[in-house]
Amino acid sequence: MGNAFMKSDATRNCVRCGRQYRESDDDAGRWNVDFNAGYATALVCPRCQTNTESLGAEIDSIELEGAGTADWNTLSDENRSDIILQVIEQRARTVIADHKDKAQMAGDTEVAFNLEAWAAEAIDGAHFFDGQPETVQAEARAAAASVIRQMLNLDEIGY
Ligand SMILES: [Zn+2]
């Protein structure tokens, strides 16, 4: 899923250094989508990512490969919370990107927005939360909604 949003040729270069995204490259799974770069969907290559961005991309690909559980038990509670928040943020980003991408491909300039549904989408697809109590999943959805609100600047307009 990590790169499913990279469908159009227009978005296939790193917005910071211009490097072209190629699926065959070793680091192809660690590219990020950046919404703060002034583009609807801007790609950032691993070399140009800040540490936080890079961690998010790393965690997302670990999670997707199902390999993240190996070291999970050795982490402190604090580290686990950090990682969970990173996963939520990364997934919220992906949900926003997917919706924007779908709208663009359909030629729409506006995206139908449903905060609750998007937050649920972000959490439902994360294996981290499979089998967790409903209270945990509800907390995760609330965190995802908060991230989505921030990313879309909805706090400013009082959504
Ligand atoms: Zn770059």
The biggest beta sheet reads: 2 strands, antiparallel
Report the average pLDDT across residues: 70
Low-confidence stretches: 1-10, 64-71
- Widest β-sheet, arrangement of strands: 1-2
Query: What sequence of helices (H) and strands (E) makes up the elements?
Result: EEHHHHH
Q: Give the total of domains.
A: 1
**Class based on secondary structure composition and strand pairing:** mainly alpha
- Radius of gyration, in Å, reads 16 Å
Strands, count: 2
Q: In DSSP terms, counting alpha (H) and pi (I) runs of 4 or more, how many helices?
A: 5
Range of helix content: 40-55%
Terminal CA distance reads: 29 Å
Structural description of this entry:
There is one protein chain. The protein has helices at residues 51-65, 69-72, 77-105, 115-124, 134-151, and strands at 32-34, 42-44. It is mainly α and 159 residues long. It has one domain (9-151). The longest helix has 29 residues, at 77-105. Zinc ion binds at residues 14, 16-17, 19, 45, 47-48.
Quick description:
48% of the residues lie in helices and 4% in strands.
Task: Give the secondary structure arrangement, pairings included.
Blueprint: E1 32-34, E2 42-44, H1 51-65, H2 69-72, H3 77-105, H4 115-124, H5 134-151
Antiparallel strand pairs: 1-2
Helix pairs in contact: 1-3, 3-4, 3-5, 4-5
Bound molecules: zinc ion.
Protein name: Zn ribbon nucleic-acid-binding protein
Organism: Spelaeicoccus albus
